[in-house]
From TrEMBL:
Family: Belongs to the ETF alpha-subunit/FixB family.
Name of protein: Electron transfer flavoprotein subunit alpha/FixB family protein
Taxonomy, superkingdom: Bacteria
Classification via Pfam families: ETF, ETF_alpha
Species the sequence originates in: Paracholeplasma manati
Domain Electron transfer flavoprotein alpha/beta-subunit N-terminal as annotated: residue spans: 4-202
Coiled-coil regions, chain positions: none
UniProt-listed SMART domains: ETF
PANTHER family for this protein: ELECTRON TRANSFER FLAVOPROTEIN ALPHA, ELECTRON TRANSFER FLAVOPROTEIN SUBUNIT ALPHA, MITOCHONDRIAL
InterPro entries given in the database record: DHS-like_NAD/FAD-binding_dom, ETF_a/b_N, ETF_a/FixB, ETF_alpha_N, ETF_asu_C, Rossmann-like_a/b/a_fold
Amino acid sequence: MNNVWVFMEQNHGKLQPIGLELLSECRRKLTQDTQISAVYFGEHLTDKDKDAMTFCGADEIICTLDSKLSQYDTHYYAKAIENLMKHERPDVFLIGSTLQGRDLAPRVSARLNTGLTADATLLEFEQGEKLLLLATRPALGGNLFATIICENNIPQMATIRPSIFKIEEDKSRASTLKEVPFVCESTSKVKVLHSEKLTHKKVELNKAQVIVAGGRGVSNMFPVLKDIANLIGGEVAASRAVVDANIEQKDRLVGQTGTTVHPKVYFASGISGAIQHISGMDKSELIIAVNTDPNALIFDVADISIIADAKQVLPLVKEELKAILAYK
Ligand SMILES: Cc1cc2nc3c(=O)[nH]c(=O)nc-3n(C[C@H](O)[C@H](O)[C@H](O)COP(=O)(O)OP(=O)(O)OC[C@H]3O[C@@H](n4cnc5c(N)ncnc54)[C@H](O)[C@@H]3O)c2cc1C
């Protein structure tokens, strides 16, 4: 039987959505004769997290529980994966393209002497006697998409960007649990001396239902964009040009090197629509774009195109929203 493993990332014991996103996508794309396993490392595994993995499509949960694994540590986590792969090797091993995943995956692939497609945005499988992973990722500065296949070595590995795939649960599903002990004679070379909570609250653009985004064309209008976002309970986002100019923080960047978003409404002003930006927002349900250039690429993905000067449009939008809200 073919099998696919998905690494379940946790942070301070809290299961991260990326693992569930990958399980859901695998379950959608793979038939029942491919076994999907969720691989979890930590100190404890709660019933709630077990259920979440099962309902999202794991046929099997493989877990290694040890106090050394309570927090992410490159050395211990890579060792734990190596331990598992001594007994069996899956055809495919998927890891989120998060800070943890980007650190862990290359180390594991080098140890297992296999290839790794980093930062994939699309997964396809060819199911036959041999299961083949086709992982697609932006290449050459995002100007084209390359589909990469690693036919000759297993596991075929890829890291996948978070927030691309929808989490889908089916509560009728069941799974088996396999506990594998943690064996590691060496001590980690990494010693955490001190950890500090971010004082600046990280914006979770991927959860926003309404996004009011601005690009270089409106770089001096971010206070107005913020007012509009506040009026409608949305979040402000920005293009790379704005983030590079230090007008907005990196966690508000949308696109290939920022966050992938899929809000109900994406209101884009003064953004040209470079492929690197589009690839992070084109799954939005309704895209409204304002640009002075009728040939701006953003209009290719917009549902509503407004060819106008955003410096005139934005204050009008703000006043109109205020009037509507006052009337309510
Ligand atoms: C490897 C790589 C990764 C990248 N990753 C990202 C990424 O993740 N996200 C990202 O955004 N970019 C990314 N980029 C950069 C990307 O290629 C573009 O350079 C960037 O998106 C351009 O930002 P912009 O649209 O704000 O600026 P510009 O391209 O300069 O566009 C400004 C737009 O504003 C319009 N405009 C000007 N004045 C007005 C006005 N008064 N009213 C209305 N419209 C007006 C103009 O017509 C123009 O279309 C990446 C590039 C590379 C090479």
